[in-house]
Amino acid sequence: MVEKAFCMMDKDNSGKITLKDISYIYDVTLNPEFLEHRKTKDEIVTDFLSNFEGARGDRDGVITKQEFFDYYTDLSNCTPSDEYFVRMMESTW
User: Fold this and answer.
1) Could you tell me if 8 and 93 are in contact, meaning their C-beta atoms sit under 8 angstroms apart?
2) Are 24 and 11 in contact (CB under 8 A)?
3) pLDDT computed for residue 16 by the predictor
4) Sign of the dihedral through C-alpha 11, 87, 68, 38
5) Least crowded by CB within 10 Å, which of 25, 31, 52, 81?
6) Class for domain 2-92, per CATH?
7) What is the C-alpha separation between 24 and 29, in angstroms, rounded?
8) What are the C-alpha distances in Å from 82 to residues 5, 38, 63, 65, 75?
9) In this predicted structure, what is the pLDDT of residue 57?
10) How far apart are CA 51 and CA 49, in angstroms?
11) Which residues neighbour 12 within 8 Å (Cβ) at sequence distance 6 or greater?
12) Terminal C-alpha separation, the chain
């Protein structure tokens, strides 16, 4: 499931998720910070991407496959079951 989600977001098949990759699928038009002109689309998408770098990421704004897998490894440890994790991934991506 995590591999599938990563591949879906890695639009150019570079093995990394970048601002360019995600800006095509992440709609910020209803984000309050965007609506109130406090942040640009790129700033909001960059903030979103930084979540996936996690504690072990290098904070460069580019999500490697390893960073993405580490994020979901940490998250899966907090889920009650594998079935729950799969449902969560399916509903998110």
Assistant:
1) yes
2) yes
3) 94
4) positive
5) 81
6) mainly alpha
7) 12
8) 16, 39, 24, 21, 11
9) 65
10) 5
11) 18, 20, 21
12) 9
- Tracing tokens 């079935």 back to the chain, one arrives at 83
Question: Is the pTM higher than 0.85?
Answer: no
Beta strands of the chain (E only): which ranges? 16-17, 63-64
pLDDT digits (tens, 9 = 90+) for 46-59: 888 888 886 666 77
Calculate the CA dihedral of residues 2, 89, 83, 80 and round it to 10 degrees: 100
**Single-letter residue type at 13:** N
Q: What are the boundaries of each domain within the chain?
A: 2-92
